[in-house]
Specification:
The chain crosses the membrane at residues 12-40, 52-72, 139-158, 222-242, 262-281, 319-341. One of its GO terms (biological process) is mitochondrial electron transport, NADH to ubiquinone. Belongs to the complex I subunit 2 family. It is a single chain. This protein has 349 residues and is mainly alpha-helical. The chain has one domain (2-348). The chain contains 17 helices and no strands. The protein is globular.
């Protein structure tokens, strides 16, 4: 009952942010999302309690700064206050350089709250940021976006814990989303929704197999070829590898940058994407190519031949309808890639 109430109030908070025209009401909706999420964390170990407390302290500090900026009257320092508001929202979004708390909090939470904090929980702050954006703070947003994309890509290179890898992946993708907000907000929302679907699928797959570490990524359930192919497609799609759905996300963003004559910025973001692709490939390698006496390729082939379709389905994760549908996202790349390439060629010619 309490969980259902918390979920309902969280959704109500997001609706308040989207539908309100007053900044204070938007702030109330943002805080409603924050506090209802804390009730959903339900910590059962000291590590999870620590993560919940860290999240509460960081979000509360950002909320204080945001509220003081909102209630200040319009004066000569209004441009400074607008920058302060953007920095407070960047803390809530875990955008670099205000991201140091995010990987530790994500690693300390259970899988489902970690999935929420990587996806749904950022929608409110993103919506409010898009409503508060002006020409005065647009340059600052671009700087924060580029910093976030590069910091997330570089910081994830030496990580071996899967939730931290997904956290740094979120920081990097948040940079792309924030940058797209400055040039085309519908494209930014589309980018974030596709990213959220793929991330949620990946996180729940890892939860089902209890893959807390890269060394555990060669899982028993990969005796099911369907699960193996889907997991690899999702991970590589996050890296923007063609012809998967995540590549179309990056292609759409690149098209908008070129249309707005932001070639240098596009090159920086693409370099950050290539850097982050390295740790996605590490996850893929640990998932499909590592082997041991128990998980050798010949052992897998022999067991798969003996499996019936019923047994194969029983070894697949019990995804919800949303998560099952999101597996289609990478496959959409195979369908729409020719059209996207044709449009890009026509645009650059």
């Amino acid at each position: 009952m309490m969980t259902t109430l918390s979920v309902g109030m969280n959704i109500l908070g997001l609706l308040m942010i989207i539908l309100s025209n007053h900044y204070i009401l938007m702030f109330v909706g943002l805080e409603l999302m924050t506090f209802t999420f804390i009730t959903l964390v339900s910590p059962t170990s000291p590590r999870q309690v620590e993560a919940a407390v860290k999240y509460f302290i960081v979000q509360s500090a950002a909320s204080i700064v945001l509220l003081l900026s909102l209630i200040f009257p319009n004066t000569l320092i209004s441009s400074t206050l607008q920058m302060t508001m953007m920095m407070a929202l960047s803390v809530k979004l875990a955008a670099a350089p205000f991201h140091s708390w995010f990987p530790e909090v994500t690693q300390g939470m259970k899988w489902k709250p970690a999935t929420i904090i990587l996806t749904w929980q950022k929608l409110g702050a993103l919506t409010m940021m898009s409503r508060l954006m002006t020409q005065d703070n647009k340059t600052m947003m671009i700087v924060l976006a580029l910093t976030s994309a590069m910091a997330g890509a570089v910081s994830g290179l030496n990580q071996v814990q899967t939730r931290k890898i997904m956290a740094y992946s979120s920081i990097s993708h948040m940079g792309w989303t924030m940058f797209l907000l400055t040039i085309n907000q519908p494209v930014a929302i589309t980018y974030f929704i596709i990213y959220s679907l793929i991330t949620a699928s990946t996180m729940l797959t890892m939860e089902y197999h209890n893959s807390n570490h890269l060394s555990k990524m060669h899982m028993d359930s990969f005796l099911s070829p369907w699960t193996l192919v889907m997991t690899l497609s999702l991970i590589l799609s996050l890296g923007g590898l063609p012809p998967l759905g995540g590549f179309l996300n990056k292609l759409l963003a690149f098209k908008e940058m070129v249309n707005n004559n932001m070639t240098v910025t596009a090159v920086v973001l693409i370099l950050s994407s290539l850097t982050s692709l390295f740790f996605y490939l590490r996850v893929s390698y640990s998932t499909a190519l590592t082997s041991s006496s128990q998980h050798s390729i010949s052992f897998m082939v022999m067991r798969v031949k003996k499996k019936t379709m019923k047994n194969t389905m029983n070894n697949n994760p019990p995804f919800t309808l949303l998560i099952t549908s999101s597996h289609i996202v990478p496959a959409l790349g195979l369908i729409f890639l020719p059209t996207a390439l044709t449009s890009l060629m026509a645009m650059t010619s």
